[in-house]
Amino acid sequence: MKQLDLPPDQSIRDKVAVLERALFLPNRRRKATWRYWGGVRSADGSEHPYATGWHYPKDRATIIPEDYPLPEEIPSLEGDFLYLGHYPAGFGHFLLESTARLWHLRMQDKAFTGALMLKPRKLDEKIVERQLQEFAELCGLELPPLIWPDGPVRLSRLTVPQQGSGALDLMLGAPEYRDMIVGRFAADVPAQGAKKIYISRSGLDSAHGSLIEEDKLERLLVAEGFEIYHPQDHSFRDQIGQYKAADVIVGVDGSAFHAVSLVSWFSEKTVAIIKRRPAIEAEWQARQLSQYGAARVGVVACDETAWSPAGVRRAALSMFGTLSFAAAGRALHDLGAIAHPEAWQDTPEAEREAQIRAIGAQLGCDMCEVRTSGTSLDHLPPRQKPDEIRLIGVAERMALSEAR
């Protein structure tokens, strides 16, 4: 299976394998990573395609190495077990991937003996259990007890549902996954909080990229009656209560919008996603919100270039985007999110460049202009001059690459 195809209008109800004498192989990678060395093998030693985990449609999360070490005697467990896939690092990927096989619990009333999944080896299993249990309860589901074998174990009977959600194209979810959410998720959580909120990233680690001048964006939105909301300062249930209560939600693209989508069906909502980098994620997040019931969704484009520190292997997670505030104000007004776009004015170029240099000084790196998240800057030294933070445009960066 080279990729996961998950058309949002095609049922996966029947994409469930019940394996006799299946072999569960815990993750063997010591460090937290996007890849897991482990998974499920059928009794004949083959890897069943439904058991493969995916981050993106063509990006596998789980790989079973050919030399995965097996003991001479593999212990067996008797009972009916459920395979729940993988637990990735990052809140957004947890919402999209760790929950992606729970849909099967709504399809039948079997009481499973236990459930198994892959996790980073050093991650405390109680963290996984707590998050997954809370999500299942919010869906009105009873989660089987999670078990964590230290090594390979053979299971008398293992049910393997296909993954029903994921990142990018997979955000739209299979019908059975969406049915687990829409009209049901967090039914007992009261809608409580401000009617207009801005989901802020200003309190997060700036080394991982953001939108330059987010403070200016916040000031403009406060003037429009928005409350600045920092989701990391609130419990997940409280976040959901706030998102249920809000009629207008604006924010910089990020994992918070995956949580918003879970209750976007609850009331008629206007949602605006402001792009913080020239990448495709914001567009997929907008489609996800629409798919789950948001009434009005818009994407406010950032500039076509962003800035990333010299020396990084891949620009994706360290891109600092810039925004035309005049264009953003018009777009938010057209969407019905703000009333006074005339107050939104662009920052003078010299002032913006000074802000980019200040970010570079904080990171200890020159700042490079980039246009795609896959751009590599590891051929450049972090600093070309010890007493100056340089701004390296696209043309100069490409010339330096060719001269290398």
From TrEMBL:
It holds the Pfam family Glyco_transf_61. Residues 91-259 form the Glycosyltransferase 61 catalytic domain. It comes from the Bacteria. GO terms for molecular function: glycosyltransferase activity. This is Capsular polysaccharide biosynthesis protein. It comes from Celeribacter persicus.
